Amino acid sequence: MAETHQEIVKVWIAPGCIVCDACETECPPVFDVQEETCVIRPEALKAEFTRPLTPSIIAAAEGCPVEVIKFETVEVPGPAPWAGKEAQAAEAAAAPAGAAHAGAAKKAVTVPQGPPDPRWAGLLTTAHTTTSASRSAGGPSVELRPAKVPAEAIASALGKDAPPDARTAAMVGSGFVRPRPSVVERIRARAGALTQTQGMTRRQFNVALAVAWGAIIATFGTAAAALQSFLVPKVTKEPPSLFRAGKLSDYPNPGVYEQFKGSQGVWIVRLRDNSLVAVSTICTHLGCIPNWLPADQKFKCPCHGSGFYMTGVNFEGPAPRPLERYKVALDGEYVLVDKSVKFRQELGQWTLPGAYLQV
Ligand code: SF4
Ligand code: FES
C-alpha cells in the first residue's frame, strides 16, 4: 500500500480563545494573538502556506488549553517532507515572527514569498499587527488602522466555505472591525481607574471628600430653604388688632352696624342707652359666627342655635356666656377699636373704662 501523509490546508480559531499566547509561541507565522482573541494571519489562510507548517500547527492545536484551534487536512501521497525533521521544523516555526516575515535565509520551513494574493493586497496595506515578542519589547500590542477594503470584499475573498470565525478574525486583523471590550477588559479598566484613585495622596482624598460633602450639604440646604419658603406664608391674614372703625357720626342711631364683621370680626353696636360697644363675632359656644337678625333683634348662631341679645348677652342655646367686647376709644372724631383688650360680662368687666364709649 502506497505511503501517504496529512497536510493542513485550512486553519481557524473557534470561539472561546482565552488569549494565552501559547499558539503564537508555538507557530508565530500562522497565529497572531491580539488583545481580545487569537486570529489567523491573512497569509496563513492559504493552503500552500499552511501545508509545510502542518507539524507546528498541530502542535499548537494540541497545546491550546481550550482546544479552539481547528484545521482541515488533505491526504497527500508519499512520505511527509518533514518526516524525521520535526524538531528542526518546529524550531523554524517558533522563530520570531519578524525574522520569519523578513524571509531570513536560515529558515528551515519554506514560507511562500513574493507579492501577496491580490485579494489580500488591500487588507495587508491596512492591517498592521505586531507579535507578542515585540509587545514584550514594549511596542504597541496591536495597531489597527482604518481599513480600505470594504467588509464585503474581505468576506468574498475568504470564500463561501470559510469558517465564520475566520471571517471575524480577518475583519479584526484588517482593522475593519474593532471588537467591543469584553467584560474582563472593562473590569481591568475599572481596576486601573481604582488604582489611580488609590494613588491619590491622603490630602487630595480629604479635599475631594470635603468637596463632596459640601456639595451634598449645599443641595440639602437649598432644598430645605425652598421647602421652608413654601410652607411659611409670606403674608399674614390676621387683621391688625387696633383699627379705626369710622367716625362716631357713622353710628347715629341705636342698632347693630355690620361693616366690620367680615374684615375685623367686630360688630359696632350703639345701645339704647347711647353707649357704643365693639362686640366680638365669635360664638362663645364653639366659635361659629352668629348672624344679626334685625327682625328678631338678636344674634343667632347657625351652628347650634345659641341666641344673644343686642347687648351680647346669651339667652338661648348652648352658649355658656355672653359675647365678648373689645376696647373702644375716641381718636378725635374717629372710633378706635383695640382687639387686644377684651372685656367679659361674667367677670364683671363690661363696666370698666374702655369697655364702652359714652356718646
Ligand atoms: S493557544 Fe488557544 S487559547 Fe491560547 S491564544 Fe492560541 S487559540 Fe487562544
Ligand atoms: S357655636 Fe354657636 S351655638 Fe354652638
Number of helices, where a helix is a run of at least 4 consecutive DSSP H or I residues: 12
Mean pLDDT metric: 78
Termini Cα gap: 150 Å
**Low-confidence regions:** 96-148
Structural class: alpha+beta
Pattern of helices and strands: EHEEHHEHHHEHEHHHHEEHEEEEEEEEE
What would the CATH topology of the largest domain be?
Alpha-Beta Plaits
Bound molecules: iron/sulfur cluster, FE2/S2 (inorganic) cluster
Characterize the main sheet. Answer: 7 strands, antiparallel
The structural domain count equals 2
Kindly provide the name of the CATH class of the largest domain.
Answer: Alpha Beta
Radius of gyration: 52 Å
Morphology: rod-shaped
Tell me the helix content: 25-40%
Under the CATH scheme, the architecture of the largest domain is 2-Layer Sandwich
Q: How many strand units?
A: 17
What proportion of the residues form beta strands (DSSP E)?
15-25%
Quick overview:
The protein is α+β, with helices and mostly antiparallel strands. The protein contains 12 helices and 17 strands. The strands form 5 sheets. Strands 7, 8, 9, 10, 15, 16 and 17 form a 7-stranded antiparallel sheet that branches.
How does this model look, in words?
By secondary structure, the protein is of the alpha+beta class. The chain has 2 domains: 4-195, Alpha-Beta Plaits (2-Layer Sandwich); 242-358, Rieske [2Fe-2S] iron-sulphur domain (Rieske Iron-sulfur Protein), CATH 2.102.10. 32% of the residues lie in helices and 23% in strands. The chain has helices at 22-26, 47-50, 54-63, 86-93, 97-101, 118-126, 132-136, 151-158, 164-174, 183-198, 202-231, 261-264, and strands spanning 4-13, 31-33, 38-40, 69-77, 127-129, 142-144, 242-247, 255-257, 266-270, 275-280, 291-293, 298-300, 307-308, 314-316, 325-331, 334-343, 357-358. Strands 7, 8, 9, 10, 15, 16 and 17 form a 7-stranded antiparallel beta sheet that branches. A 4-stranded antiparallel beta sheet has the order 11-12-13-14, with no helix packed on it. Strands 1-4 form a two-stranded antiparallel sheet. The longest helix is centred in the middle third of the chain and has 30 residues, at 202-231. The site of iron/sulfur cluster (SF4) has 16 residues, from helix 1 and strand 2.
